[in-house]
Write a structure and sequence with these properties.
This protein is mainly beta. Helix content is 7%, strand content 44%. Strand 23 (398-405) and strand 24 form a beta hairpin.
Length: 578
């Protein structure tokens, strides 16, 4: 699979089709944030805020490229069309209104670049950086060479295993987080593991404790891995949940856990991100505020995992914030759903400044079921958004991507992708160079649930670079966003494989693709350009009243010996399509 890229951004133009040797240049102890601060000229402000899936080694690839490019002569710069970095601008208009912004907005047409399926080996290089036309001549356009290992595997765990998140490991591969049923089927244990580029499990741990505990998010920040999720209290304490944060070294050594909650309330963490100040931010839900059955939750912790502030956002029904990111100005953006009734939900986005004060809250939809799954700041105060919707598109549920402009009169421009069945875009993965990967699931290619991966170019109006559905003979599902950009430049997706031969248990599936979504094997079949992007015209912002209030948590610390993690065997690793 190939796709043209801008000459100035091309790895081909900068490195002669070869990635720089960065491993020897990068101290292992260097953190993501230290690398960015030391090389600010190589990373615009918005990229420095999008670090959840970016490992130190992946950053080093870009830093080395930046350094190499700076050394290129003026004559070479002229030939490659190198341009100065764009100036970043601020985000949305500040305000503290407790009502969502109203109004209507129309969609915009999104173009798409044709791509072809390719099983080229990730290590392949070429001597000529330009494509050839039908007459044998050169078009002069550089060709993006895929990098990164690839493969597709399933693991015979023999228990139901649900993978909920993944992040790049600086030594290669990904760290995955989720939960597994206990052998008696009465409890669930949190699981965290490092899966290498070749699919082998380097280490894997489960929380061997009596209450139900699950990891819904994983963060790799420097030398530390955080598993974030929930821990359920026993029946005598109301059978409610607390936010769970467990800390590990890169080699899987467990360092301890902290819990946040209130004795009489129910809290659930869905996603965590590392902040530029070294802290963590978490999104999820809480019933402590009492605006509805439950409300969206945002909480911020410092480097010592001490609570800085926490807020609840919601209406009269069940609301949640499934994802979040740090804005250019250090503010926090949370996205999810806001229910307008028991059956209808709008796409919800809210922003808070660094002190925990509201900046804006915005909802849109058209009377159906919607969930915003990801958001990332662009230039000019705009935001890239992705999610799923039943309001527009070709089927019962379609994926969508678009741009939100919340300043003044808010504007939303969307395009949907999907077929007659269930589709959802669930994970937004920043790649740099104005590009983002998006991971999701698609049901309209094989009439079962398959992994779905696409890449967006946001240098102008967001357009689709490539768009691939991976169809295998088995039925895979992605409940939450499970995708990451690896240190070797490739992309990864994690799913649950429904094993019909073993009591319908859910086994983990890992897809490592190259940087262009290609696999080095014919199975699973790669359905390129399975869906066309269709612009949306009838976007409505209902102006639903949203309440916002502070949340009070107590903090409990658990040492590494209080409730230890134990080794967890993933069973036999096998090719997905054996």
């Amino acid at each position: 699979m190939t796709a043209p890229i801008h000459t100035a951004e091309s790895r081909v133009a900068q490195h002669g089709n070869r990635l720089p040797n960065t491993r020897s240049r990068l101290p292992k102890q260097a953190s993501v944030f230290a690398l960015m601060r030391q090389n600010a000229e190589c990373y615009p402000t918005r990229m420095r805020s999008l670090v959840r899936h970016v490992s130190p080694l992946a950053l080093a690839l870009g830093l080395s490229a930046c350094a190499d490019n700076a050394a290129v002569s003026a004559e070479t710069e002229s030939e490659t069309g190198t341009q100065p970095a764009d100036t970043e601008s601020g985000a949305g208009t500040s305000g503290s209104s407790a009502t969502t912004m109203g109004g209507t907005a129309g969609g915009t047409t999104s173009g798409k670049t044709e791509t072809e399926t390719s099983n080229a080996d990730a290590s392949t290089t070429t001597d000529d950086a330009s494509t050839s036309d039908d007459t044998g001549g050169s078009t002069g356009e550089p060709v993006e060479v895929p990098v990164g290992a690839s493969g597709a595997w399933r693991y015979d765990v023999q228990l139901s295993f649900f993978m909920y998140d993944m992040a790049a490991h600086p030594d290669g591969g990904v760290v995955v987080a989720g939960m597994v049923d206990t052998t008696d089927g009465n409890n669930r244990d949190a699981v965290i593991a490092h899966v290498a580029d070749d699919g082998t499990v380097q280490w894997s741990l489960r929380k061997d404790a009596v209450p139900n505990e699950q990891f819904f998010s994983v963060v790799v920040a420097g030398e530390t891995v955080y598993g974030v999720g929930l821990s359920r209290r026993d029946v005598g304490q109301g059978n409610t949940n607390q936010v769970l944060i467990s800390e590990f070294d890169l080699d899987g050594s467990y360092a301890g856990s902290v819990l946040f909650g209130s004795p009489t309330s129910d809290e659930h963490a869905y996603e965590a991100v590392a902040l530029s100040n070294g802290g963590l931010a978490i999104s999820g839900y809480t019933d402590q505020t009492g605006f509805g059955d439950r409300d969206g939750l945002l909480m911020v912790l410092d480097e010592a995992l001490a609570l800085q502030w926490a807020v609840g956002v919601g209406g009269a029904f069940e609301d949640s914030l499934f994802s979040l990111t740090e804005d250019d100005d250090g503010g926090l953006l949370g996205v999810g759903l806001l229910r307008n009734s028991a059956e209808v939900s709008g796409n919800l986005v809210t922003k808070y400044d660094t002190s925990g004060s509201p900046v804006f809250t915005f909802e849109f939809g058209n009377g159906g079921f919607n969930i915003m799954r990801g958001i990332a700041p662009l230039d000019g105060g705009r935001y890239l958004i992705v999610g799923q919707t039943s309001d527009w598109g070709a089927g019962g549920m379609d994926g969508y991507f678009g741009v939100l402009e919340p300043q003044g009169d808010p504007v939303v421009s969307l395009s949907t992708l999907g077929g007659a069945q269930f589709e959802a875009l669930r994970e937004l993965i920043p790649l740099g160079d104005d590009r983002f990967a998006v991971a999701g699931q698609a049901g309209s290619v094989s009439m079962t649930e398959d992994a779905w991966l696409l890449r967006l170019d946001t240098s102008d109006v967001p357009t689709v670079d490539f768009n691939v559905v991976y169809d295998s003979p088995r039925n895979q599902r992605m409940v939450f966003g499970v995708g990451a950009a690896r240190a070797d430049g490739g992309l990864s997706v994690g799913l649950h494989d429904v094993d019909e031969s073993n009591d319908m248990t859910n086994e983990p599936v890992i897809l490592h693709t190259d940087s262009l979504g290609g696999l080095d094997q014919a199975c699973p079949t790669q359905a390129a350009d399975a869906f066309a992007a269709v612009p949306v015209e009838d976007i409505v912002t209902p102006g639903t009243t949203v309440s916002q209030g502070s949340v009070n948590f107590s903090r409990t610390t658990a040492s590494a010996t209080d409730e230890p993690f134990v080794a967890f065997d993933w069973g036999t690793q096998a090719a997905l399509c054996e």
